[in-house]
Design brief:
Layout lengths: L6 E3 L2 E3 L16 H18 L21 H4 L5 H15 L5 E5 L7 E4 L2 E5 L5 E5 H11 L11 H15 L5 H10 L2 H13 L4 H17 L2
Antiparallel strand pairs: 1-2, 3-6, 4-5
């Protein structure tokens, strides 16, 4: 629960939340870990659908495919990152699927588990208003991030999407699958750019470089 009013500073909204202590962070990026994370996300998206709220716009910068933050837009980056970003943005720019309310920072570091059951989901100031397939795809890419940003193995992202669809009770259409796979690169692209800009360890950079062709092929991008 929020403990303070929202303070707007330097283009960001800041507030304090009540701490829910205890629990453990999931540190695996296996298909089994992906399934647990996806089932929890599906449950929360069902709950969020019952809320009647104004859309929480603008969306967080790491899933805002229609524009890049200035630091990234003006940086000189490797050609393969620029190529991947252009292809992903072009694919997602044509998406006209209806938006939903969803947690847009679905990473292991923001979730606590107790004896295999979910205890708390933190970072609710990272809500977004985007198509379901896109946000689920983004989560499938980075659900395993905890100590440092990362990109999950392709087979774990696939397991994430499959588990989410089963919990949802309805499969995504072929087009929604393409959108999900395109969006699965979004956060890793943002993280890889920042790794270069700020001189951070290149974990997202290396994983995205190794996986990008497979993910782009699945997205038909």
């Amino acid at each position: 629960m929020p403990l303070t009013d929202v303070i707007f500073r330097s283009g960001f909204a800041v507030h304090a939340e009540q701490l829910v202590g205890g629990g453990e962070v999931e540190t695996e990026d296996t298909p089994a870990a992906a399934e647990r994370s996806a089932l929890l996300l599906a449950d929360l998206i069902r709950r969020l659908a019952a809320l009647d709220l104004d859309p929480p716009l603008p969306n967080p910068e790491w899933v805002r495919w229609d524009s890049l933050p200035e630091r990234q837009a003006t940086a000189e980056l490797p050609a393969w990152i620029e190529d991947t970003g252009r292809r992903v943005r072009a694919k997602l720019a044509g998406c006209r699927l209806p938006p939903v309310l969803v947690h847009a920072d679905w990473e292991a570091q923001n979730i606590r588990w107790l004896r295999g059951e979910p205890l708390a989901v933190h970072d609710w100031d990272s809500l977004a208003w985007l198509p379901e397939a896109a946000l689920v795809g983004a989560a499938a890419g980075v659900f395993a991030s905890h100590a440092t940003p990362t990109l999950a193995p392709v087979e774990s992202s696939e397991a994430f999407l499959d588990a989410y669809e089963r919990a949802r009770g309805e499969r995504f259409s072929p087009y929604e699958h393409e959108i999900a796979w395109a969006a699965s690169t979004l956060v890793a692209l943002s993280d890889a750019r920042d790794e270069l800009i700020f001189g951070r360890p290149r974990l997202s950079y290396e994983r995205l470089k190794a996986q990008r062709q497979e993910r782009l092929a699945r997205a038909h991008a």
